[in-house]
Amino acid sequence: MTSHSNTPGKTVWINGTFDVLHVGHIKLFRYARMLAGTNGKVICGIDTDERVSSKKGPSRPINTLQDRMLVLMSIKQINNVLPFSSDERLSSYIAAYAPDYMVIGDDYRDKPIIGSEFIKEIVYIERDEHSSTRIIDEINR
Questions:
Q1: For the chain, how big is the Rg over CA atoms in Å?
Q2: Where are the domains of the chain?
Q3: Which of these, 5, 30, 95, 115, has the minimum number of CB atoms within 10 Å of its CB?
Q4: Using CA atoms in the order 23, 25, 26, 28, what is the torsion angle rounded to 10 degrees?
């Protein structure tokens, strides 16, 4: 019987705000882990508070970077969490990891993807109805 414990895994990159986690995020993390394999790595880039505020408005994020990172680091599918405040920093992380895959929402299809030149394959996943912004808007109503 052969052992799969020495099978090399893949490196999978995901990134986002991950402000209010929902089932759509969990599906993303599980899919990334499946692509990485048991011995692979799932690396998660996360926007800094300043970057989130500049992109989503002054009332965001709801949770601080420290809190969002702690939550992500507690998720078993994720191996490492890296904060980034600029496109250049994000690109440099992706270059350093040279991931086999990036998993990203299909709303990014046909749009420029930061660091794509360092990624072997971009995997688009269909976004479901879950959205942190939608959840926050519903709470604020």
A1: 15
A2: 11-140
A3: 5
A4: 130
Question: Taking the model in full, what pTM does it have?
Answer: 0.85
Burial of 34 (0-12, 13-18, 19+ CB in 10 A): middle
- Looking at residue 39, what DSSP letter applies? T
Sign, Cα dihedral of 79, 84, 88, 89: negative
Return the CATH class of domain 11-140: alpha beta
The CA distance from 16 to 25, in Å, is 10
Token pair 């394959």: residue = 121
Left, alpha or beta for 57 (phi > 0: left; psi -120 to 50: alpha)? left
Digitized pLDDT (tens) for each residue of the chain, 141 residues in all: 444 455 679 999 999 999 988 888 898 999 999 999 999 999 999 999 999 999 999 989 999 999 999 999 999 999 999 999 999 999 999 999 999 999 998 888 999 999 999 999 999 988 766 555 555 566 567
